[in-house]
Specification:
Strand order of the largest sheet: 3-9-8-4-10
Helix content: 25-40%
Strand content: 25-35%
Number of helices: 6
Shape: globular
Structural class: alpha/beta
Number of strands: 10
């Protein structure tokens, strides 16, 4: 199978790179704009049967343990909308966009790949933000509004491009920290990356 591995940083997939698999690797850079541009550019240059995004993420709840690796079924842009009088509304809630306009389903970018049901990894709901913050009110607002499990800076951008391109994709994330915790001594970054790359290599071997 012709595979493409996508990551925001080389650091997150360094152990995988050392394995020298046959999969192509694209390091996009951090954030939504870089992910959308770099991934769209690559997909216009070469066709792939499966694209896998691999990276770390923060978690909102206790459903997943630190360093646990999950597959993200649905993701969305959590900070695209309008804020008035201290209340944030998505474009759908504001009436500027229908929540089922392609490629959205109920306001979410949903991955229907059968691998999510067949694999033993837990399945999570993610949101994507442009700003990582330690503001407890902002983080609680996101948690309450979207009821998501994890947060990243690229996931929804990845889903958006792959759904638009009608290409099979998987978003693989390992939990490195609690959302809002900026004290890196409380993160499990090394273990998260080890877990992430172990599962990534396993999926790549299964889809050769």
């Amino acid at each position: 199978m012709n595979l493409l591995i996508v990551s925001a940083t080389r650091f997150e997939v360094e152990p995988f790179l050392k394995e020298k698999s046959n999969a192509d690797v694209l390091i996009t850079g951090i954030g939504v704009p870089a992910t959308i541009f770099q991934l769209t550019k690559r997909l216009s240059e070469k066709k792939y049967e499966l694209v896998i995004q691999a990276g770390i993420a923060g978690t909102f709840n206790h459903r997943f343990n630190l360093s646990e690796t999950v597959l993200v079924k649905e993701d969305t842009f959590a900070d695209i909308g309008i804020e008035e009088n201290g209340t944030f509304k998505t474009l759908y809630e504001s009436g500027f966009q229908d929540k089922n306009d392609f490629p959205y389903t109920g306001g979410w970018l949903v991955n229907h790949h059968s691998f999510l049901e067949e694999n033993k990894l837990p399945v999570a709901k993610g949101i994507t933000v442009n700003t990582i913050t330690d503001n407890p009110l902002q983080n609680q607002s996101n948690k309450d509004k979207f009821a998501a499990d994890i947060e990243s800076m690229e996931g929804a951008a990845f889903h958006y491009v792959c759904l638009q391109q009608k290409i099979n994709f998987l978003q693989l994330r390992s939990i490195s920290n609690k959302v809002g915790e900026r004290d890196k001594t409380k993160w499990e970054l090394r273990n998260a990356i080890e877990s992430l790359n172990k599962e990534l290599l396993k999926i790549v071997k299964e889809n050769k």
